Amino acid sequence: MKSTMKLVAVAACVVATLVAPLLARADKFSGGGWTVTIGDDGSYTGCDAQNRCLRIESYDQQSQGAYVWSNGGYTYAMSPIDAGPRYRLTVRDPKDKVILRQVMSPAK
Is 69 a member of any domain? Predict the structure, then answer.
């Protein structure tokens, strides 16, 4: 029983070590006139330079710091660049054509 509890404690520490850097990253990014906020709840809010915004309540996929959301046949992906603080926003139309690819930096 004690060895199982130790194993669970070690596993919790490993998960915390892997997840903490992802949570420590900025949740608001900007670049090229766009602003993207990744909410604590996994939501996506993307705004253009005229402050017209789209909110998507939750992501479809999340893995290793990358997120994918979908809305009306469009997909919105935020992927980390070289494990650094910058992300790449990629938006695809319903025919899977890339209509936006923008490097996003943590907003201040």
Answer: yes
Beta carbons within 8 Å of 87's beta carbon, 6+ residues apart: 29, 36, 78, 79, 80, 81, 103, 104
Asked, for residue 101, whether it belongs to a domain, the answer is: yes
For the domain that residue 45 is a member of, what is the CATH number?
2.40.10
Order across the sheet with 44-47: list the strands. Answer: 53-56, 44-47, 34-38, 28-31, 98-106, 87-92, 74-80, 66-71, 61-63
- The CA-based diameter of the chain, rounded to the nearest angstrom, is 59
Helices (H), the chain: 2-24
> Rounded to a whole number, what is the distance in angstroms from the first to the last CA of the chain?
48
pTM (2 decimals)? 0.74
Per-residue tens of pLDDT for the chain, all 108 residues: 444 334 333 333 333 333 344 443 449 999 999 999 999 999 999 999 999 999 999 999 999 999 999 999 999 999 999 988 999 999 999 999 999 999 999 997
